């Protein structure tokens, strides 16, 4: 019987730099202390068995499926040389919460297939196979930020992912909000979030259209004057988000590096306003969570991830975490929404082989 290898793959929170990866811009995500455990064992045939949440799916290497394991089958197809395997997935990461449960699953499966078959893939190869599986399975033309955060995360660090180059560059950035009495709080709104059917693809198309009008390969290359050169109000607003968000990431990076938390908070909140008003990817549940967190004492708060539901992140003095939780819950309750899941996260290690 082949050895069982155990992988731990985290989810991620994006601190700032939203909807920039596919436009050639920067993002500053970090891996979190919630994620997936994947147990993997090589088989000597071409069958892949997957167990998760009390369910089992089986398929042959190269096959597509349309059941819950479709994403796993997509990864097996995207990893050249993949062989049969038994895979058991356990998760403490809420699914569909904008915390990259899909990237954790796809990167975990690709990493396991690589290791079981001694395929010699780099982390960038794993990230790209994972992205390909996501594109083919969900139809959402996502960027590479999530995969790179999940793979390159490191405890006590954020991951600066700069998509100005292909492949993107990745740099670890130390971050320690707790030393200064602060916490990073995630609010899982419970509002549904599905990039395959949301406006994600529309936003990407709009950014590409704006870049083409400006004669650029990628919209994040645009200078401030670009807004004056676009007449269409929608494309102008999308461009304004990309330009201002790119500048905010640069500012946030300086704030993180110097521990200027009040400034960081201001940039997080400005990022939310831009995503809500210019990029139009927020929703009522996210806006209520952000407003309540700020009202209860957060230094800053914003939606995180692709939006249209999912989660918000707030930078909160430790003695205000409870008031933030109570006010968000109260606001949700007052409009009849289910209670959100609210928890503190810590920048954590990326995907790793545990045993
Ligand atoms: C989703 C995508 F998967 C990422 O690539 C990124 O575009 C993000 O939305 C928005 O910043 O998580």
Main attributes of the structure:
single chain; 355 residues; alpha+beta; Ribosomal Protein S5, domain 2; Alpha-Beta Plaits; six-stranded mixed β-sheet; four-stranded antiparallel β-sheet; 37% helix; binds 2-deoxy-2-fluoro-alpha-D-galactopyranose
Your description of this structure?
One of its GO terms (molecular function) is galactokinase activity. Belongs to the GHMP kinase family. GalK subfamily. The chain is an alpha+beta fold. The protein has 2 domains: 5-172, Ribosomal Protein S5, domain 2, CATH 3.30.230.10; 177-345, 2-Layer Sandwich (Alpha-Beta Plaits), CATH 3.30.70.890. It has helices spanning 70-78, 101-116, 123-138, 145-152, 200-213, 233-258, 261-277, 284-295, 321-334; strands spanning 4-14, 26-27, 29-42, 47-52, 55-60, 85-91, 157-162, 169-174, 182-188, 300-304, 311-317, 341-345, 352-353. The strands form 3 sheets. The chain has a 6-stranded mixed β-sheet with strand order 5-4-6-3-1-13, covered by helices on one side. A 4-stranded antiparallel β-sheet has the order 10-11-9-12. Helix 5 (200-213) packs across helix 6 (233-258). The model has no long low-confidence stretch (mean pLDDT 96). 2-deoxy-2-fluoro-alpha-D-galactopyranose binds at residues 14, 18-19, 21-22, 142-143, 145-146, 305-306.
């Amino acid at each position: 019987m082949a050895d069982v290898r155990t992988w731990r793959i985290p989810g991620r929170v994006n601190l700032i730099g939203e909807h920039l990866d596919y436009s050639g811009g920067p993002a500053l995500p970090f891996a979190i202390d919630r994620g997936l455990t994947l147990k993997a064992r090589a088989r000597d045939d071409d069958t892949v068995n997957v167990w998760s949440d009390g369910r089992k799916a089986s398929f042959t290497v190269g096959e597509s499926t349309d059941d819950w394991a479709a994403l796993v089958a997509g990864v097996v197809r995207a990893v050249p040389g993949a062989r049969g395997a038994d895979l058991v997935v356990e998760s403490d990461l809420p699914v569909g919460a904008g915390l990259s449960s899909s990237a954790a699953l796809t990167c975990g499966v690709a990493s396991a297939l690589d290791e079981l078959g001694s395929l010699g893939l780099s982390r960038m190869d794993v990230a790209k196979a994972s992205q390909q599986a996501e594109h083919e399975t969900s139809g959402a033309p996502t960027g590479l930020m999530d995969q790179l955060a999940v793979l390159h995360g490191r405890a006590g660090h954020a991951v600066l992912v700069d998509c100005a180059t292909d492949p993107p560059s990745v740099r670890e950035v130390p971050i320690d909000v707790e030393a200064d009495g602060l916490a990073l709080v995630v609010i899982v709104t419970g509002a549904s979030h599905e990039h395959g059917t949301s406006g994600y693809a529309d936003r990407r198309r709009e950014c590409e259209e704006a870049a083409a009008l400006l004669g650029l390969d990628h919209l994040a290359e645009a200078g401030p004057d670009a807004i004056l050169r676009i007449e269409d109000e929608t494309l102008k607003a999308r461009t304004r988000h990309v330009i201002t968000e790119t500048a905010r990431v640069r500012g946030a990076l300086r704030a993180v590096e110097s521990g200027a938390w009040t400034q960081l908070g201001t940039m997080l909140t400005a990022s939310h306003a831009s995503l809500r008003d210019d990029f139009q990817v927020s929703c009522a549940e996210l806006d209520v969570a952000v407003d309540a967190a700020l009202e209860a004492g957060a230094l800053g708060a914003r939606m995180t991830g692709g939006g249209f539901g999912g989660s918000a992140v707030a930078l909160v003095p430790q003695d205000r975490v409870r008031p933030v939780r109570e006010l968000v819950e109260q606001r949700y309750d007052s409009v009849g929404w289910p209670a959100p899941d609210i928890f503190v996260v810590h920048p954590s290690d990326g995907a790793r082989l545990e045993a």
